[in-house]
Amino acid sequence: MSSLNWFIVLALCLCQALDSSNAFHKRRMTKRFNLRKNRDPDTPQIPIGTDGYIIRRGIFFEEGSINGSTQEGVEFENVALYCRVGGVPSPSVHWLKDGKRIVQAGSCGSQDDDEDLNGFADQKLSSYSTFSTLYIDCLDETDQANYTCVAQTATHRETRSVYLTVARSETPALPTLKACARKGRPARIYLATNSVLELENNNVRLFCRAQGNPTPTITWFDADNRIIQAGGNYLLSKNGDLIITNINWFEHMGVYTCEAQNVYGNDSTSPFLYPTARD
């Protein structure tokens, strides 16, 4: 077989592989963001590419979120409350304790908790699946309260709540008491992107907000597990987020990894980014 024929065969194989990969990830995002064929013209929706799929505007809570029931904790122990939110455009997420806003990071975090999460909300499409976790350490009676996860955009607001009870501990374990007395806290990611569907040539922000004492260091890795440095299409925000500008499918589609670390421990999250073609 001539060199030209070999080149043609290799090119065809590459195209087939790319088509298969694209189809696989399209199915993944179809399931994640509830894409469907456009059959309901009265529902607010956004077209995706040229294949007839749409994604519906709004906010939804995913499996694993707090669901309105009561959760029990034990004095001196730790609990975590989970809120998993999806939406178009990207919803901001925060927590309330008995109706008052909680600043999660505080002086031991990697960012200002009030920073706007909707920096790209004016784009034609910005569909995010976001995980938010509220960590409450060394429980005492003052932590017994109603906790609410709030997800909102400029036009929508949805909430989920749970009532946390704190049972008294008659014989707390010594390691638990020592951990409560220690000033240091391990690095823990409390706000993270799970997956993003965005049009090519737009910008995206992958959330990675961590808390701990001392303040955690944040490191990002690309889809090939290489450390991401600021420059080119990549911006590293002081709060831990990764901003990717002018995204395209060939260069930026894939699973990224954010690692938060301090001397007491580490945490990681792996968001998936899918740039989709424009019309």
Automatic annotation (TrEMBL):
* Residues forming coiled coils: none
- Please give the Pfam families that the UniProt record associates with this protein: Ig_3
Q: Does the keyword Disulfide bond apply?
A: yes
InterPro entries recorded:
Ig-like_dom, Ig-like_dom_sf, Ig-like_fold, Ig_sub, Ig_sub2, Neural/epithelial_adhesion
Keywords from UniProt, A to Z, are: Disulfide bond, Immunoglobulin domain, Repeat, Signal
Q: Does the keyword DNA-binding apply?
A: no
Annotated Ig-like domain ranges read 44-165, 186-274
Write the protein's name. Ig-like domain-containing protein
Please report the organism this UniProt entry assigns to the protein.
Answer: Elysia crispata (lettuce slug)
For this protein's source organism, the top of the classification is: Eukaryota, Metazoa, Spiralia, Lophotrochozoa, Mollusca
